[in-house]
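Mods, move this if it's the wrong board.
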Amino acid sequence: MAKLLIANGPNLNMLGQREPEIYGSVTLAEIETRCRELGRTRNIAIEFIQSNHEGELIDAIQNAGLKGYIGIVINPAGFSHSSVAIADALRAADIKVIEVHLSNIHKRETFRHHSFVSKVADGIICGLGADGYELAIKALASSAASIDP
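Not the wrong board. Structure tokens:
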């Protein structure tokens, strides 16, 4: 069975409570349930992590690269705009990366327009809410299917 990492950065544990007018009312637990169900239909095991700690996310990214995962879906949240270390870890993992943001970061404050992660991502989905995670899984599953014999 193929494996996929979904990594979530700081404050995403507060989804559904924190600024629902921006991030929606769906909780991270609900997003995880939806992603795992989609994974089952695609024969993909989903590893799901959320951390407010940069190093913990980097460890998970490095492990995904070493363990032959088909890809990483990452919502780096605030680390998008500040973490060269996460971008470096994604580059070193040498697997497909889809960056996801619930809101459209380009319609928000100017500092959110830049993402270090975008520079290393194979694809970026923003502004589509929780659906962005499922679209990213589908894209990575299609990509993996096209290279598997």
